[in-house]
């Protein structure tokens, strides 16, 4: 997707969800993130899920607005939104009997549908492109049970890349995302490498330790966003 050079990837203005102090609540959230950046959001699980849900169009802000590449997220249709922002899903061991092609092809199925054959040439080309992008062409028809943990991670990233989104979301605190359990820094390396291609990456973590030196920006409730030791963007995560 092509955007103007000065168009930020994500802008949140006065975004609030829930009652201040309650689990999962975010209050008066203001944020501007440039394309190609890696943002680490560090908070307890309820707040992490709220933050990802706000960016993936699963919940609407009670106050304020969320804009992606200059467009209000809630003025986009669901299909259009998922072509702009996609969440990297955690690995599910129930998929071990499938091939990487079958797993990645789910991105082209109707929302909520897990099974089906993708026949449209354009969609098949995009599936092949995403697998190639993650260096999985050779393993495309292989049984996923034989893949390494890192290869499984690449399969899930490939699934998220099918529609060529400008923004990827990922909860690295989940043990279902290979490489993240106990070593979120290692889990960040593969998706983080996509920044070189201009993809904006938002990851959520339980704590900021593993994000230091990897993320461009680290956000934590009650703190200013930090890049290294400097504070750059005004932010309020508490009421």
From TrEMBL:
Residues 10-239 form the ABC transporter domain. Pfam families: ABC_tran. Keywords: ATP-binding, Cell cycle, Cell division, Nucleotide-binding. InterPro entries: ABC_transporter-like_ATP-bd, P-loop_NTPase. It comes from the Bacteria. One of its GO terms (molecular function) is ATP hydrolysis activity. GO terms for biological process: cell division. The keyword Cell division applies. This is Cell division ATP-binding protein FtsE.
């Amino acid at each position: 997707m092509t955007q103007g050079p000065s168009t930020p990837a994500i802008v949140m203005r006065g975004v609030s969800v829930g009652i201040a102090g309650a689990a999962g609540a975010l209050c008066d959230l203001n944020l501007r993130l440039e394309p190609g950046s890696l943002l680490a959001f560090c908070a307890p699980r309820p707040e992490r899920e709220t933050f990802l849900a706000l960016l993936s169009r699963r919940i609407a802000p009670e106050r304020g607005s969320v804009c992606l590449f200059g467009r209000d997220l809630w003025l986009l249709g669901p299909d259009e939104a998922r072509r702009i922002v996609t969440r990297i899903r955690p690995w599910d061991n129930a998929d071990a009997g499938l091939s990487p092609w079958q797993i990645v092809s789910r991105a082209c199925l109707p929302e909520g549908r897990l099974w089906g054959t993708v026949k449209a040439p354009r969609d098949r080309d995009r599936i092949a492109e995403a697998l190639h992008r993650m260096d999985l062409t050779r393993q495309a028809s292989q049984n996923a049970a034989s893949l390494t943990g890192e290869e499984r991670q690449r399969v899930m990233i490939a699934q998220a890349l099918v529609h060529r989104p400008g923004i990827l979301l990922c909860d690295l605190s989940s043990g279902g995302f290979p490489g993240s359990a106990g070593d979120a820094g290692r889990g960040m390396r593969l998706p983080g490498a996509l920044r070189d291609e201009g993809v904006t990456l938002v990851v959520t973590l339980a704590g900021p330790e593993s994000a230091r030196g990897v993320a461009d920006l680290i956000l934590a409730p009650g703190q200013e966003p930090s890049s290294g030791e400097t504070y750059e963007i005004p932010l309020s995560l508490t009421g």
